[in-house]
Specification:
The complex is a heterotrimer of chains A (293), B (334) and C (236). Chain A has one domain. Helices cover 73% and strands 2% of the residues of chain A. Chain A is built from eleven helices and two strands, in the order ααααββααααααα. A two-stranded antiparallel sheet of chain A has the order 1-2. In chain A, strand 1 and strand 2 form a beta hairpin. In chain A, helix 9 packs across helix 10 and helix 9 packs parallel to helix 11. The N and C termini of chain A lie far apart (54 Å). With 334 residues, chain B is an all-alpha fold. Chain B has a domain of 222 residues. In chain B, strands 1-2 form a two-stranded antiparallel sheet. The longest helix of chain B is centred in the middle third of the chain and has 27 residues. Chain C has 236 residues and is of the alpha/beta class. Chain C has one domain: 3-Layer(aba) Sandwich (Rossmann fold), CATH 3.40.50. Helix content of chain C is 37%, strand content 28%. Chain C is built from ten helices and ten strands. In chain C, a hairpin with a 2-residue loop joins strand 4 and strand 5. In chain C, helix 3 packs parallel to helix 6. The chains are: A mainly alpha (293), B mainly alpha (334), C alpha/beta (236). Chains in contact: A-B, A-C, B-C. Chains A and B meet through helix 4, helix 9 and helix 11 of A and helix 5, helix 11 and helix 13 of B.
């Protein structure tokens, strides 16, 4: 029982990372029908920036917040400069641009910071947290807290602020949004900015565990896809929940099913995607878009 | 009608002649590269049929490429079947596999089909390594390049170049007939508005699965050819990267286009090399820049770009004709 | 009375297809003008041209200010509210959120409470359904929401595209009655309609479009008595 709780908490921690990245993917998909394949790499790049700031002497949380700000601006700039020229092109062409961004990010990161693995600090104490017989890693708990805090802030923003409302409207119905005076292009840019922030949070939380290197987010991105598929690509809340579920399932399967070692844990994610697609493609909380013909 | 087709046929024949002359001019390595281009072109044409003409997104065509390659390799390695026979067998097998895959795929649209095929592509190397009794596991299977038949004085690279070129011409000719006729129109109709297509009496389920099958067959044949040309198959060569590369080639070349498949194949074969020449330190960054640049300049692919230039060039003539037309009187509607 | 809206030689394009061939008209401040015509005549396109939703050549002036180089969002800020064909409601958002968004383009934000009270006064049913998702409203209610959202802008000109489409006659009559009231508070209305009888009843001035050209115009009571119009558009 104790092990179960430990593994569930640990699963929730990694799940939080998948949830953040999945949320980023879903936000952009909802607004544009485009899956941003570069999301993970942008997150990795932001994490490296944080590393550089910390290495330059900045205290952790200052570097963390600065990185979030930089990621936000970076996301906006990328949307306005890189994506905007092709915003009216066929979807696959825009996907190609995100693929281009992916390889550029990965390659440039390797060029600037080399492919040598670098340790990344965790802001949480090294001593584990004990409750009776249960031992919980402080980083895991801290990770869950940070993820939940970020998610809460975003929820409040979208639900209760005028700008959040305008962004929701722009994602949902760009034509009507223009007719009420919303600058849809800039709403989209803000969406990319926020998505970059979620990605950066995910990157900075996972880097202490996996160690920092250019291919940091490759595997994480696959799990994020599984999370978004499970939760529903049309539902941000679903994607978040999907992330936590995938994290827990991944951990439990790895612990309790003996023949699945770390190698095949990956296959579990793929199996989840296939099962969801066969049973209910739109995911737990997604809805089919009904179009008038 | 034949007046406008003649220059086209002459042009294609001229290209073919140039293609046949290359083996006597280029080095073996360059011939190998061009054989690879023809192989990619066949694979990409398969993908174009499915994604471009029929609107079903596939991020997993590398899987069919792998099936074709391994079928060919296993037949040659285990049962000593000559490479020539392995190619149609690979094609037919992939046709069946593709069709079977197309059936559950009927339930998935757009993004969801892309996710499913993407997951399939990710799983391929692991599946190949798992069945190591057949596939030789991570070590793969080493093959030997065939010699030219009938004592022709061609080295293996030259002979394989002609083989791939020949298969390319045959499959492209077949593909063109398929796509430009009634079947092609039905396929495109399904892509553009499948409800309307169904209402017109097209059996969309059957067509979509068949297109999946034929598309897989083309890519499978390409894979089978690659087994001989590279003379080696190993699981890690058929990872998700291959599927993504084929899709890149498809979009860059022009999705709903036959000539686009060749342009795309040239891109994915040669641009990575150029990128490496430009920057040793971050070659993929250069590739990414090329990729983005092409999409800015030609969002509908190279074939699409050429078509737009052609339309722009002939537009002034059409506008003149339009200005002289008599406006029709409006009728009151009932 | 000065011209509120002036359009001269307006041509509009969908891609390379020309939908309007040199439309010219002007609207006086405070009036209700209606554009009539058959399907495909270019009525919706004319409204879209004013809202800068299509490519155009020719002159469009609102209160003397040229609109040709402006974006849709700028036109909204000038005080032109467009209730589009098909309502254009944000179906996943609540009625209240829809209304709030209507005020987004306003230069002076101010307190929205007065505006809410005003539109609820016109359309009491919206107050009842305030927290409901807009997609759950009936067609008539969504049309009311569409007009109400446009009014939240405190517009000087209201562009209204086929408000009667798909609605029961009683509901349509109610909406038109409210439009008259709204106009009396100083909001000019440019109305596109296929239901010629109702439109002629409401409007002061009429334009008739046929395949992208103005073929007839005049005061509504004059055109109502015109035989050709009667036979072609009123069916008797």
């Amino acid at each position: 029982m104790d092990i179960l709780i430990q593994q569930v908490v640990s699963g929730l921690a990694t799940g939080g990372i998948y949830a953040s990245l999945a949320l980023a993917l879903v936000m952009i998909y909802q607004a544009t029908d485009v899956v941003n394949f570069a999301q993970g790499e942008l997150a990795m790049f932001a994490t490296y920036i944080c590393w550089s700031l910390i290495n330059g002497g900045m205290p952790y949380w200052a570097a963390f917040l600065s990185t979030l700000a930089i990621a936000f601006v970076g996301g906006i700039v990328i949307e306005r400069v890189v994506i905007r020229p092709v915003e009216n092109a066929p979807i696959l062409s825009i996907v190609m641009v995100t693929l281009g961004l992916l390889v550029i990010c990965n390659s440039v990161a390797g060029w600037i910071w080399t492919y040598v693995q670098k340790p990344f600090p965790s802001p949480f104490p090294a001593n584990p947290f004990r409750a009776g017989n249960i031992v919980l890693g402080a980083h895991d708990l801290g990770q869950i807290e940070v993820t939940l805090l970020v998610l809460l802030c975003i929820y409040l923003f979208f639900r209760f602020t005028p700008l959040g409302l305008a962004m929701r409207a722009a994602a949902h119905n760009p034509v009507s949004s223009r007719l009420v005076g919303i600058r849809v292009g800039w709403m989209l840019a803000l969406g990319w900015g926020l998505a970059a922030v979620f990605g950066a949070v995910a990157g900075m939380m996972v880097a202490p565990v996996l160690t920092l290197e250019p291919n940091l987010m490759g595997g994480v991105q696959i799990y994020a896809f599984a999370a978004a598929t499970l939760g529903g690509f049309t539902s941000p809340g679903g994607a978040v929940l999907g992330g936590f579920i995938v994290g827990v399932v991944e951990n439990l399967v790895g612990t309790y099913v003996s023949f699945i070692g770390t190698e095949l844990k990956f296959t579990v994610a793929l199996a989840m995607i296939i099962v969801v697609l066969l049973v209910k493609p739109t995911g737990l909380f997604g809805s089919t878009v009904v179009k008038r013909v | 009608m034949s007046a406008s087709r003649l220059p086209r046929i002459v042009g294609l024949l001229a290209l073919l002649l140039v293609g046949c002359a290359l083996p006597f001019v280029l080095s073996n390595f360059r011939l190998f590269q061009f054989s690879q281009v023809y192989i990619y072109a066949i694979a990409i044409l398969g993908l174009n049929m499915l994604t471009g003409y029929n609107g079903q997104f596939s991020l997993g065509h590398g899987a069919f490429y792998a099936v074709g390659a391994y079928v060919s390799a296993i037949m040659m390695d285990r049962w000593n079947i000559p490479y020539g026979w392995t190619i149609p067998v690979a094609g037919v097998l992939c046709l069946i596999v593709g069709f079977l895959f197309g059936l559950p795929a009927l339930r998935l649209e757009g993004l969801y089909l892309a996710l499913a095929t993407f997951s399939l592509a990710l799983a391929v190397p692991q599946i190949l390594k798992y069945f190591e009794h057949w596939t030789g596991g991570s070590q793969g299977i080493v093959l030997s390049k065939p010699n030219a038949p009938f004592g022709l004085r061609l080295n293996p690279d030259q002979w394989l170049y002609f083989v791939t070129l020949g298969v390319l011409v045959l499959l492209f000719w077949l593909g063109a007939n398929l796509l430009k006729g009634r079947i092609g129109r039905a396929i495109v109709a399904i892509r553009d508005n499948h409800i309307a297509a169904e209402a017109m009496g097209i059996n969309t389920a059957l067509y979509k699965s068949l297109v999946f099958g034929v598309s897989a067959a083309y890519t499978g044949v390409a894979g089978a050819l690659s087994a001989s040309v590279i003379a080696y198959v190993a699981p890690d060569s058929f990872n998700v990267f291959l599927s993504v590369t084929l899709l890149i080639g498809s979009v860059i070349g022009g999705l709903a286009s036959i000539s686009g498949a060749v342009f795309g194949a040239l891109f994915i074969q040669f641009v990575p090399n150029w990128a490496q020449d430009i920057s040793k330190a971050a070659p993929w960054a250069i590739f990414g820049v090329f990729l983005i640049g092409f999409m800015y300049l030609m969002p509908f692919g190279i074939a699409g770009g050429i078509r737009l230039l052609w339309i722009r060039a002939t537009r002034s003539r059409v506008q003149q004709e339009g200005r002289n037309a008599v406006p029709t009187q409006a009728h009151t509607t009932t | 009375m000065s011209a509120l809206l002036e359009v001269q030689g307006l041509e509009a394009f969908y891609g390379r297809t020309k939908a309007l061939h040199g439309v010219s008209f002007s609207m006086l401040k405070g009036g209700i003008t209606t554009i009539l015509g058959a399907n495909g005549a270019g009525k919706t396109t004319t409204l879209r041209a004013i809202s800068r939703m299509v490519k155009t050549t020719g002159a469009i002036r609102f209160e003397g200010e040229p609109l040709e180089r402006k974006a849709t969002e700028d036109v909204v800020q000038l005080g032109i509210a467009h209730a589009p064909e098909g309502r254009g409601t944000f179906v996943h958002l609540t009625v209240e959120e829809n209304l709030r968004l209507g005020a987004w383009g306003r230069r002076e934000r101010g307190n929205l409470q007065d505006d809410f009270e005003r539109v609820f006064g016109y359309f009491p049913v919206l107050r009842e359904r305030r927290r409901q998702a807009a997609g759950t409203l009936s067609g008539g209610e969504q049309q009311m929401l569409s007009v109400a959202r446009a009014l939240m802008l405190r517009p000087r000109l209201l562009l209204l595209d086929e408000p009667s489409l798909g609605l029961a006659p009683l509901v349509v009559r109610e909406i038109f009655r409210i439009l008259r009231t709204i106009n009396q508070t100083g909001v000019s209305v440019l109305l596109v309609e296929q239901n010629a009888a109702l439109a002629l009843d409401l409007a002061d001035h009429v334009f008739l479009l046929e395949t992208g050209r103005v073929v007839m115009e005049g005061p509504s009571d004059v055109l109502r008595r015109d035989d050709a119009i009667r036979r072609a558009y009123l069916g008797y």
